[in-house]
Specification:
Layout: E1 3-8, H1 16-23, E2 29-32, E3 41-45, E4 48-52, E5 65-68, E6 73-74, H2 76-88, E7 97-99, E8 103-104, H3 107-120, H4 132-140, H5 153-174, H6 182-190, H7 193-196, E9 200-201, H8 203-212, E10 217-220, H9 245-249, E11 260-266, E12 269-271, H10 284-292, E13 305-307, E14 309-310, H11 311-321, E15 325-329, E16 339-348, E17 351-353, H12 360-365, E18 367-374, H13 391-404, E19 408-412, E20 420-422
Parallel strand pairs: 1-10, 1-11, 2-5, 2-10, 5-7, 6-8, 7-9, 11-15, 14-16, 15-19
Antiparallel strand pairs: 3-4, 12-13, 16-17, 16-18, 19-20
Helix pairs in contact: 3-4, 5-6
Inosinic acid binds near residues 126, 132 and 273.
Length: about 425
């Protein structure tokens, strides 16, 4: 009964698609368990390239059932924009299932996301502006709308009314915006009801039954460990549980049914939005990583902040998620460097930290302690086994494995789907 979780081990955009591709046709279900359309992955179908923000990556693999779990917040108009774009390109999304307990990103959540960021001024989070935070805030405040509510119109209208009562005061009196009516929200949401009906179901039951039958369920985390609302660089985080524990709460599958947890980590570090990032580079090396690594956001187009590999973060991700494996991506981006700095610890006012400082101010003040590893100049994109890599690249990977406290089971050596070295089976069962 393999239940496999994939999570980002840094600040997102580590290239989760690579690991998903390695697991390929052995997966029966792909579950998105957190976040919403703040994520983004570029997908190539034939000669066309386009971005998916909300749908789980499994939507493109014939035979896979893609699932949007209860931990996700769904912008229904984005959902159908993506579904229709796929249909136009000949992809059949009819197997998609959505949890009846997944929350809806109501139109007012988007408005609130943007006005709140403006109001925060220099304390802003740098959100994607998709209404993610306000939708989760409503969920926790018990003012949220859930997918299942769409099928009881009176209940839906009552919930919208309850939610708007407070928000209209805020919008009108604090943010100087116009009030929103129950009808405009209800009309927008209800137009999708008939199309949604066949997809909305008890996905926890479906997934547990699949595991009972011995099928493979892949839980795909959105965002990443350092953006997790509990374990990330709070308050500069997203509003959901992006770590492995979120796979259980966000899907209704218990932790004892999860066999392996794969962390995806880039051979260097990137971050979008605000918040501390100890290894961030402000010089031409940062530009080098951004240009060679094409580090521009899929969702917002923003240039990502770039820096060297941070092993303190990787060790932390290994611990918080209980990682069984790491997939190291984009190793090829480092080709051509004479030596490669790797952050092994932090210095905070003369004190060495081997572990992530829990104090927000200390983390913000942390400067990296680097070790310098020799680089390589050979093109590594053709390597398909570890031994194909130049010795210094092998040494770099082995050094990362050691200081990150987790085995590296696959290594990305180029953007293509097959440009990867697989060291260990990623579908192994715990203890095997
Ligand atoms: P929100 O998720 O839109 O509320 O944004 C909160 C923070 O998470 C911001 O710094 C975003 O840039 C960041 N973020 C959200 N989704 C992603 C992602 O998929 N990749 C990287 N950063 C993300």
């Amino acid at each position: 009964m393999p239940g496999v979780v994939i999570v980002g081990a840094q600040w997102g955009d580590e290239g989760k698609g690579k690991a998903t591709d390695v697991l390929g046709s052995r997966v029966d279900y792909v579950v998105k368990f957190n976040g919403g359309n703040n994520a983004g992955h570029t997908v190539v179908i034939g000669d066309q390239k386009f971005a998916l923000h909300l749908l789980p990556s499994g939507i493109l693999t014939p035979g896979v059932t893609p699932v949007i779990g209860n931990g996700v917040v769904v912008d229904i108009s984005v959902l159908f924009t993506e579904i229709d774009a796929l249909i136009e390109r000949g992809v059949d999304p009819s197997k998609l299932l959505i949890s009846n307990a997944a929350h809806i990103i109501a139109p007012y959540a988007r408005t609130l996301d943007n006005v709140t960021e403006r109001f925060l001024g220099k304390r802003k989070i740098g959100t994607t502006g998709r209404g993610i935070g306000p939708a989760y805030a409503d969920k926790i405040n018990r003012l949220g709308l859930r997918m299942g509510d769409l099928f009881d119109e009176q209940l839906l209208r009552d919930k919208i009314e309850g939610s708007l009562e407070q928000k209209n005061h805020l919008l009108v009196k604090v943010y100087n915006r116009r009030a929103i009516t129950v009808d405009e929200v209800a009309d927008e949401l209800l137009q999708y009801r008939d199309r949604l009906e066949p997809m909305v179901t008890d996905t926890s039951l479906v997934l547990n039954q699949a595991l009972d039958r011995g099928e493979t369920v892949l839980f795909e985390g959105g965002q990443a460990t350092m953006l997790d609302v509990d374990h990330g660089t709070y308050p500069f985080v997203t509003s959901s549980s992006a770590t492995a524990g979120g796979a259980s709460t966000g899907s209704g599958v218990g932790p004892t049914r999860i066999d392996s947890v794969i962390g995806i980590v880039k051979a260097y570090t990137t971050r979008v939005g605000e918040g501390p990032m100890p290894t961030e580079l402000f010089d031409e090396m940062g530009d080098f990583l951004a240009e060679v690594g094409h580090e521009y956001g899929t969702t917002t187009g923003r240039r990502r902040r770039c820096g060297w590999y941070d092993a303190v973060i990787a060790r932390y991700a290994a611990r918080i998620n209980g990682l069984t494996d790491l997939v190291l991506t984009k190793l090829d981006v480092l080709t051509g460097l004479e030596q490669i700095p790797v952050c092994v610890a932090y210095d905070v006012d003369g004190v060495r930290y081997e572990e992530l400082p829990q104090d927000q101010a200390a983390f913000a003040a942390a400067t990296p302690v680097y070790e310098y590893l020799p680089g390589w100049t050979e093109d590594i994109s053709g390597a398909r086994s570890f031994e194909d890599l130049p010795q210094t690249a092998q040494d770099y990977v082995m050094a990362l494995e050691k200081i990150s406290n987790c085995r590296i089971s696959a290594i990305g050596v180029g953007p293509g789907r097959d440009e990867i070295i697989v060291n260990h089976d990623l579908l192994h069962v715990r203890g095997a």
